[in-house]
Amino acid sequence: MVNGEVVVTQPILGQVDKEALENLRIILNPDTIRNLIDLMFFTSSDKLNTVFLLGPTATGKTSIIRYLSALAGKRFLRVQVNSQTDELDLLGHFMPKGLSISYEQAVAIIREHIETNQISKLQYALSLVLPDNQKQRALDDAGFAKRQIESALYLKKEQSDFIRSIGHILLHGISGVDLVFKKAHFLESLERGDWILLDEINLAREESLGIIYGLLTRGYLDFNGERIYLKANNGMLFAAGNPSSDAGRQLFSEALENRFQVFYTPPMKHSQQAAILFGKYPIEGIGFADIEALVELNSALDRIMQAYRFEGFENERPYPFTIRNMENILQNTIKRLSQSQNTLTPQEALLKEIFIEYNDILKRSPKNTPLLIDHIKASFKNDIEIPGINLGFTEEGSSFDGISLPQPEVVPSNKSLIPTKDMVDLILTEQTLDDTRAILYGFNNKRRPVMLLGQTAGGKTDTVANTARILNWQYRSENLRDTPLSSLIGTYQRDHNTGILSFKEGILIEAMKNGYCLVLEEINFMDTGLLEVISEWIDEGHFTNPKTHEEVSIHPDFRLFATLNPIQGVTRLSLGRNTLPA
Question: Does the predicted model carry a pTM greater than 0.90?
Answer without folding.
Answer: no
